[in-house]
Amino acid sequence: MQHANRVDEEEEVDFPGPMLIQKLEEVGINSADIKKLSDAGFQTVESVAFTAKKNLINIKGLTETKVDKILEASLKLVPMGFQTASDYYVTRQNIIHITTGSSELDKLLGGGFESASITELFGEFRTGKTQICHTLCVTCQLPREKGGGEGKAMYVDTEGTFRPERLIDIAERFGLNG
User: What local confidence, expressed as pLDDT, does residue 177 receive?
Assistant: First the structure.
């Protein structure tokens, strides 16, 4: 089984998440109009799909007709409607639970931290919030059968507490190379 962090550079991988605005070319939007959107600050198809038509019309060089076509194209790529319970059930079946490294905490969380969701940690100073985040940076890379997600981590450090050297100890604990 190939891990996501070992993908060859030439191999194209379709990751879930925001689509670059250039994807609009695949549904009939010309590159000149995409450049106008990009120059106006739009970098993803989602950012276009969630923007009011009146705001897109204000972009220099885009007519109301072009904006209608752009919005129609973006809505083909970005699901904006309601979802049936059956469809939602299928979506929930793809959720991965990432282990915290603590079986008791994993039990409290219903199996670990869920993928495709946002989880907020809060608490007093020195209660383990950063430790959990450091551990998740490692465990998210583990194979699924070991409680991981076979993925990658992005750590947004707003307080200057990220310690990459700490990850080496945690990686070794889970049998990974630091």
Answer: 85
